[in-house]
From TrEMBL:
Residues of the N-acetyltransferase domain: 3-141
One Pfam family per UniProt: Acetyltransf_1
Organism the protein comes from: Leptospira soteropolitanensis
Keyword Acyltransferase listed: yes
EC number annotated for this UniProt entry: 2.3.1.-
PROSITE patterns reported in the protein's UniProt record: GNAT
Domain of life the protein comes from: Bacteria
One Gene Ontology molecular-function label: acyltransferase activity, transferring groups other than amino-acyl groups
Protein name: GNAT family N-acetyltransferase
Keyword entries, A-Z: Acyltransferase, Transferase
Enzyme class: transferase
InterPro entries tied to this protein: Acyl_CoA_acyltransferase, GNAT_dom, YpeA/RimI_acetyltransf
SUPFAM superfamilies: Acyl-CoA N-acyltransferases (Nat)
Amino acid sequence: MSHSFRRLGESDLPLLLGWESLCFSGEEWTEKMIQTHLEFHVAFGLGDPEIKSYALICETPWEIEIFRIATLPNYRKLGLAKNLLMALFQEFPKKEFFLEVKESNYGAVTLYQSVGFIELERRKKYYPDGSTAVLMKRNPSE
């Protein structure tokens, strides 16, 4: 099954709000947060043709920071997040990637390690719930 990879824009704001609610219940970004992100940063989606996985990123001349990456609940464990990451790596082949993830999110940590991310540091009690953040980095493709 082929998945389309596309840049998301302000017209996708209602969809992003719904996806945030489904994927990050209780920790979802507000409409203003997403709107501001879309105004100053970039978002991408992956689907066939409906988006089932999305990423909110910040692009600088040297690096990409992944702020959010998620797959809709009914489509998890199908490799979509990995495919989305691979598409992002192809889109930005010469840039370092950074992200932070909750230490307790073992599935995500394992996924990130499987595509070349390495742990840089841990930030204790980083999140509002007191959990630890793992800061990870992936070097550009050589």
